[in-house]
Amino acid sequence: MDNLKRSRYDLPIVSFISFLILTVSLTSTALGGSEDEEIGSTESIVLHGSETGKLEDEWQMVQKKGNQFVVNDQPFYVNGFNTYWLMVFAADNSTRGKVTEVFKQAKSVGMTVCRTWAFNDGQWRALQKSPSEYDEDVFKALDFVISEARKYKIRLILSLANNWEAYGGKAQYVNWGRAAGLNLTSDDEFFSHPTLKSYYKAHVKTVLNRVNTFTNITYKEDPTIFAWELMNEPRCNMDSSGDTLQNWIEEMAVYVKSIDPKHLVEIGLEGFYGPSTPQRFQFNPNTYAQLVGTDFIRNHQALGVDFASVHIYADSWVSQAIADTHLPFIKSWMEAHIEDAEKYLGMPVIFAEFGVSAKDPGYNATFRDTVINTVYQVILNSIKKGGSGAGSLLWQVFPDGTDYMDDGYAVVLSKSPSTSSIVSLQSTRLTLFNNLCSMRCHWGCRKKKVLEEILYHDEL
């Protein structure tokens, strides 16, 4: 194995690039498109990547080094996606195959990270039926999701709770508290009441200590898990000062780390600027954003938080109708957060949700592709200068036959050849970059020009 590794690292730079590009061009996509329609599957190129070409027992945890993610001390830039309902689909034999299908399709375009829910509280097919009472069949479904992700070499960001009522959310925790006799007047008391916080901590402890029934690996020991997310899009409107949510983040991030010091932790924020940085209000999409109890820079300075998360929804925040103003907002929103992550936080930032809804007035697939390209380009600009922009996660990738779950943002790769090509090209660029830099490359070396050409050339 060592000899093989040396021979791969010793390849001349031009030969190495040619080999990888040839691998891409000769590999047919798993989505059914022709070579004219798509640039080709990145599946083979990913298998030759800086980590996935290694033996299974060398599958390593993602770590943070300064403002970058690393695996085996080499860069790990992310092109990924969201599919939130994987656990629920895995809990039913009639839909379980869709989990495999979405991983297979995502892998075929080189995506390496998926964000999904590790919660379903008190609802239909609930994981947590009541505080600390779990449905073992649904837990086994989550086991299956993780084992399938590992099979397809896709890392998972697992979110542990929801701000919104879908899949239970903080409202369900409050309902449980009321049922136990607590006098609660706001769902936002989820963040402050000791009993509700104890419910959340118990859930965290149960999930992190879970032993996967498919792999026999404890979740907190499994490198398939990229990171834990404290909550999907936490907001605390009850306290616009941000103190309540800040205290919760500080408590829960440390608590997660006390159980699992090996995995990365992120909050799950949308990225709104709050009272601690009024000079950044100009980047918020509207004045309401500064009143929802979140505070991007302050929140991410909490001990135990490893990287920043930001969401991008110009069609929800700026104007629902497709408009020329969307693209400048996306660009400035991303660049501001990358700058903050570099100057004030010293950590990577992932744009963990972004997309365009087909339900928006004026929507067309070309505009969606333009938005995706815009997001990808900002990431590439950051990579070029060694910045904090560490990747993005498209909201959201669906397999065929799941249209009834579509919130308008679903991307079915097999039905979207132009979008698939854009995603695949971004994956290829990042994989080539990670591979080249894994050959002990530094930005001052002769490979810098080649890397820049990879990042900015329209076609490979």
Write up this protein:
The structure is a single chain. This protein is an alpha/beta fold and 460 residues long. It is built from 15 helices and 15 strands. It has helices spanning 2-9, 13-26, 43-47, 86-90, 97-108, 136-151, 169-179, 194-208, 243-259, 296-300, 314-317, 326-345, 365-384, 417-438, 448-456; strands spanning 63-65, 68-71, 74-75, 78-82, 113-117, 128-130, 133-134, 155-159, 225-229, 264-266, 308-312, 349-354, 389-395, 397-398, 411-412. The strands form 4 sheets. Strands 10-9-8-5-4-13-12-11 form an 8-stranded parallel sheet. A 3-stranded antiparallel sheet has the order 1-2-3. A two-stranded antiparallel ribbon has the order 6-7. The longest helix has 22 residues, at 417-438. It is globular and about 60 Å long. The model is unreliable at 1-57 and 439-446 (pLDDT under 50).
Keyphrases for this structure?
eight-stranded parallel sheet, 40% helix, 460 residues, 15 helices, three-stranded antiparallel sheet, 13% strand, alpha/beta
Summarize the model shown.
The chain contains 15 helices and 15 strands.
Q: Compute the number of strand runs.
A: 15
Biggest sheet: strands, sense, closure? 8 strands, parallel
Q: State the separation between the terminal residues, measured CA to CA.
A: 30 Å
Percent of residues in β-strands: 5-15%
Determine Rg (CA atoms, Å).
21 Å
Strand/helix succession: HHHEEEEHHEEEHEHHEHEHEHHEHEEEHH
Structural class: alpha/beta
Q: Which spans of ≥5 residues are poorly predicted at pLDDT below 50?
A: 1-57, 439-446
How many helix segments? Answer: 15
Q: Work out the helicity level.
A: 25-40%
Kindly report the average pLDDT value. Answer: 87
Strand order, main sheet: write it out: 10-9-8-5-4-13-12-11
Question: What is the overall silhouette?
Answer: globular
